[in-house]
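tool_log.txt
---
The assistant was asked to compare two proteins side by side. It first ran the structure predictor on the initial sequence, then on the second. Raw inputs and outputs are pasted verbatim so the downstream comparison step can read them without reformatting.
(1)
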Amino acid sequence: MSGHRARLGPGAVAVVTGAAGGLGQALSRALEGHGVKVVRTDVRGAPGVDRVLDVTDPAALRELAAELVPQVWVNNAGILGAADALGQSDEEIRRVVEVNLLGVVHGSRAAAGVMVDRGGGVILNIGSLAAWNPTPGLAIYSATKHAVRAYSGALAAELAGTGVRVQCLCPDGIWTPMLQSAVGLDSAAMPFSGRRLLEPGEVADEAMRLLAGRRLVRSLPPGRAVLAKLSGLWPALGVASRNATERQGRRHQARYRERLDAEERAGR
């Protein structure tokens, strides 16, 4: 993999936020597979986490960026906040916005500040297919991911010519602890409405392919991405199909509840 004046391989340093979660772990392993030294950060201490870092603290992010001067910065930290829009608490709404959106903004600014000075680097922001279309039950989450995609594009344009690339990965639902914790919530049916959930490893592999190229946004899987984009262009389609889509999601949730029970019985 290579970027504008930033080679990603032995000797390169990457920061991954939200590294204690399923996707964060997979992204870290994938980068390490390319010889990159990964500094795994998370808001909580956990096995394998190198630094405790709160992405809502811009000063802490700037300090870490100045200390490490990484070639790669992955804004992966995020929370779901699944709930009906009118029933969601003010505190939860604030927290989702602070982590999912402001965490990306603060992390991107911290990383770009040192990358521009060194003449190169790559910032990877983790979005979602919910960044393309209205997602009932995940209204705030969807809003933050729309904003992450928009911010990534705007920042990429501003940084053009500096040697710093900004990219955004928008995956469908992933079988990680975040969705596992929501497998019984009716408000979280939408992420389960596809044929299957993605596995963390395959999303991390797509992230490596994205980092290896110049593409600004990659959405996956391709078929679901087309549907999500169409629903975003014509929101009335998403509103009209909501009931059918949620019914399908709840059927799939039942299947994944069985999988989760089996994994817990197996002690995984």
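(2)
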Amino acid sequence: MATAILDDLRRIVQILRESSRRAESEIGVTAAQLFVLRSLDGDKPLSVNDLGARTRTHQSTVSVVVKRLIERDLVRSSVSESDARRVDLALTRKGRALLRKAPLAAQDRLIDGLETLSARQSATLAKALHQWVEAMHLEAVTPQMFFEDGKAKKRSRRAAS
């Protein structure tokens, strides 16, 4: 049983790693950055909280990724017209152009797969994963977006040109 579980986990990590490498080599962004860009692709700007909900990530974690995308002029932030306390995030023209040539984000596949599970299956999986994390004493580890290490990434030569 442990081998089957680890093999499935290896498959998931492998597709995430391959997706990250592909995104970085083809368009010069990390898999997490690509996932955020795809999540912002829409008609309406999103708040950081809305983006966190869409990416199923805490707003503080997604903020780190957004900051890097703003620095690269792929995302813009502005004060909301409807609520001055809110910051709206949207793709820039450069961000939309990059997204048109981008590969799919593996995180979308993860979410799509999870959404095919019944509510009962999802609850069972969530409970089992949490128990596994507790058994490994990893509860205090802050969850990050996949393959986004919190350090500034160098752009690939291809993306810089």
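---
observation on (2): The beta strands are 75-79, 87-91. The chain has eight helices and two strands.
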